[in-house]
Write a structure and sequence with these properties.
This protein is α/β, with parallel strands linked by helices. The protein contains 12 helices and 12 strands. It is 34% helix and 19% strand. The strands form 3 sheets. The chain has an 8-stranded mixed β-sheet, sandwiched between helices. Strands 1-5 form a two-stranded parallel ribbon.
Length: 359
C-alpha cells in the first residue's frame, strides 16, 4: 500500500527531488515565521491521556499473531507484529479511535491530531538501535521512557537488558492496545521448539530482512494465513516470570501535555534516566509540549536519545529547527551522536541538562 502524509499544518509544495539548499533554507525560514500560528493549531489537537493495563488474559492479544524479528549487532532479538498483517486485519480489531480504517481510507501514515504514525516502525528507530549497539549503552536498574513509542522497540530493548522501569507512551490508545502491548508480551516469550533465538526474519549479519529478501518460509506463513490456518505460536514464559517483566512496564496514551499532567500526579513524580524519542519532531507545532515533557521528566543526570530525519518534506519540521528551538529555551545542550549521510540525511542526537537547569 502506498501512503502519503496528511497534515493540517502548513504543507510545503516541494519534494526531495526538486528542492535545493537555498529552497530548504527558505522553507525553514517560512516555517519559523509561522511557528506562533502552528502552536495554536497544536493546542486544538488535545487527546486526553489515559493509562492502559494488560488484559487479564494477555494471550488473547497474541491470537494468530504473525511476527517479525529485528536483530542488530549484539543486541537481543526484538519481536514485533507484522505491519502488513495488522493493516489487513484492521476490520477485525478493536479500534475506538477508528484510526485503522481511516489510515487505510485516506492512504495516509499521519493524520494530524487524529493519528500520529504509531502503527508504523519508522526508519530512524533502526538508526537508534544501531547506535545503541555501537555505543554499548547499558540499562541495568535504569528508569526508561519510550516517548512516542509506536511499536515500542526501544523500550522493549531496555526491558530485555534489565531496566528497572519502562514506561511507554503514544498519542493513540489504539496503538498502545493493538501494537505496543502485544509487542511487549511477544518479548516476554521463550523461544519455541526448533527455533533459533534470532527468529526467521534476520539474515546472517543480524539485520532485519526486507520483504523481498525473505525466503520460502515466510511465503508459506503467508499462505497459511490466507488458508485460515494460524501460524506456529510461541509459548509465553511461566506467569511468575512474565509478571515480573510486565510489572516493570506501564502504558499511556494521549498527547504530551495531558500525559505529562497525568504522570506527575504520582508521588514522587517519575524521573527517567533515559528518554527515547524517535521521529517525533516532524511538526514544529509540537515542539513546546515535547520540550516541556522532556524538561519535567528527565532525571538531573539523565539523557534523551532522539532519532530524526534532517528535514521532513511536506510537513516542515526537522533537526535544524528543533536545534534552534532547544537553543532558544536554554535548558538542554544538544550533541550529535551519529549522522547518517546516505539517502535522506538522518541523525541520532543526545540532550542533557545544562548545569543547574534540571527541574
Amino acid at each position: 500500500m502506498s501512503f502519503s502524509f496528511n497534515f493540517d499544518v502548513h504543507a510545503q509544495s516541494v519534494s526531495p527531488e526538486d528542492v535545493g539548499e537555498s529552497n530548504v533554507e527558505q522553507d525553514k525560514a517560512d516555517i519559523a515565521a509561522k511557528h506562533t500560528t502552528d502552536e495554536s493549531t497544536a493546542a486544538e489537537n488535545i487527546k486526553e491521556a489515559a493509562e492502559h493495563c494488560p488484559p487479564p488474559d494477555p494471550e488473547s492479544l497474541l491470537a494468530d499473531a504473525v511476527t517479525e524479528t529485528v536483530t542488530v549487532g549484539t543486541l537481543p532479538p526484538l519481536l514485533f507484529l507484522n505491519e502488513t498483517v495488522l493493516e489487513k486485519t484492521a476490520s477485525e480489531r478493536e479500534d475506538e479511535e477508528k484510526i485503522l480504517s481511516r489510515t487505510e481510507d485516506q492512504r495516509s501514515d499521519l493524520i494530524s491530531g487524529v493519528y500520529e504514525g504509531g502503527l508504523k516502525v519508522w526508519e530512524c528507530t533502526y538508526d537508534l538501535l544501531e547506535w545503541l549497539d555501537s555505543d554499548g549503552e547499558t540499562f541495568g536498574e535504569k528508569s526508561v521512557l519510550d516517548l512516542g513509542c509506536g511499536a515500542g522497540l526501544l523500550g522493549i530493548l531496555a526491558l530485555k537488558r534489565g531496566a528497572s522501569k519502562i514506561h511507554f507512551q503514544d498519542y493513540n490508545s489504539t496503538v498502545i492496545k493493538q501494537l505496543t502491548l502485544p509487542n511487549v508480551l511477544l518479548n516476554c516469550q521463550e523461544t519455541g521448539p526448533g527455533e533459533e533465538e534470532g527468529g526467521s526474519d534476520s539474515d546472517g549479519d543480524g539485520k532485519r530482512k526486507n520483504d523481498s529478501e525473505k525466503g520460502k518460509g515466510d511465503e508459506n506463513q503467508g499462505e497459511d494465513l490466507k488458508d485460515g490456518a494460524p501460524p506456529a505460536k510461541k509459548s509465553l514464559t511461566e506467569p511468575p516470570q512474565r509478571s515480573v517483566l510486565l510489572a516493570r512496564c506501564r502504558f499511556y496514551s494521549g498527547d504530551w501535555t495531558t500525559f505529562l499532567a497525568l504522570v506527575v500526579k504520582a508521588e514522587p513524580p517519575p524521573k527517567y534516566d533515559i528518554i527515547f524519542t524517535s521521529e517525533t519532531i516532524y511538526n514544529t507545532a509540537y515542539y513546546p509540549s515535547l520540550h516541556e515533557t522532556l524538561q519535567k521528566l528527565l532525571a538531573p543526570d539523565g539523557v534523551v536519545y532522539l532519532a530524526t530525519k534532517a528535514h521532513y518534506f511536506g510537513v516542515g519540521g526537522g533537526l535544524h529547527l528543533f536545534e534552534q528551538f532547544v537553543e532558544g529555551q536554554g535548558i538542554f545542550s544538544l550533541h550529535h551522536l551519529w549522522d547518517v549521510e546516505e539517502g535522506l540525511k538522518r541523525h541520532v542526537v543526545g540532550l542533557r541538562f545544562k548545569t543547574g537547569k534540571s527541574t
